[in-house]
Amino acid sequence: MHRKWIIKALVGLGLLGIFANVQTTKVQANAKTVSTTPAALRGTWYYSNRHGWYTRVKVTKTVISQMNQRSGLAASLKSNRVKVIKPNKYGYWRFKIKGYRPIYLKSGHHNGQPAIKGRFAGRAFSTGKPVYAYHYLPNQLPKDAWQNIPTKFHGSWTVPKNKEKEYSHIVFQFGKYSCEAKEQIHPGVYFGFVFLGQAPDTKDSQKSSLRCYTRTYHNKKYWVFGLRSKTYVQYDDVSDYAVIYTTNDHRPALWFDGLDTYLYKF
Predict the structure, then answer these.
(1) Residue 241 falls within a domain, yes or no?
(2) Do 121 and 54 have their domain in common?
């Protein structure tokens, strides 16, 4: 099978420099930082333009992540590269990540729904320009577009520890309606992407933009995951990747085409 099936979208994220901030603004001396995220921002929030483009913002007590189907950034507040700065006069909390543009978020309501508003939402990734859009809770996503991922894939998978130096630190997470990949770039800082089954296809709103299907190649059965549309996939125009579900060392394992190592559940 062609090596293009490898997760090029993930490997290329470090080269895209989407978040690179050449002229990072210095924090004012009187700016106050905190060690945990504000409770009002915590949760999993989504932006969707109903045409196949979406962004997911996930905030826990110590982690902030913002992903879409092409790229994203996740950072742990426990990393010395990350600072959380209290709201400016406009009410935005600033997540300052060394070497990258900061993420701005504030909580509120919009159209009668709890919402957070933030920078890098929506099409900011494709244009490179700041876009401030509202993100809502999951009930704002179209339920008729959901596509189930086989149960055997559910959970988190990673490269064995003795292989981490060779492959960096790669993590895949599969849920019932989503698959996500992250690669560690710096301690506590990850690039990645997420495919959501709830997002409708750009050409057929009754179909999920996320697809998963089987394909046999050289007598091997691959599961293929990816998007129906390549509209928003930038790196090498690749929107699919192929995986063999198998066992190794007497435990479940995933083998990605083009990646010469097994990934195991943790």
Answers:
(1) yes
(2) yes
